[in-house]
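Fold this sequence, please.
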Amino acid sequence: MDKITPDPPMPPVTPSMDNAFTRDLLKDRAALYRALDHYLPDANPTSPDAMRFYNVSKDVSIEDTLLYTDDLLRWASVTAYECGEHFKGTERAMVFAVWHLLEIAKAMVDQSIEHMWPRTH
């Protein structure tokens, strides 16, 4: 698209204008940092333990943790599969993608359990 009116020429930048512009930018930056410091939380992030919805007792063994996790993944997998049966199209594909991820996670936990208690035939 052609412009009918050309852009006006830019005024020459003098050192005093450049310094004033730089000072304005620095003032704006200082105001920005003050606003960020005021509205954002402290720089010290909250520990992951404090952010958890569920906490596991320190007394629970790794074996019990893996077995319970295996059960949770199995229940979540069955739930996702059953939900996927009632959807069509994109929704069905997304639910079955979640089901697939749950099955992969369950296979990893099953493998960990198998390494802890190898089967003797």
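The helical segments are 15-39, 48-51, 62-84, 89-116. The mean pLDDT is 81.
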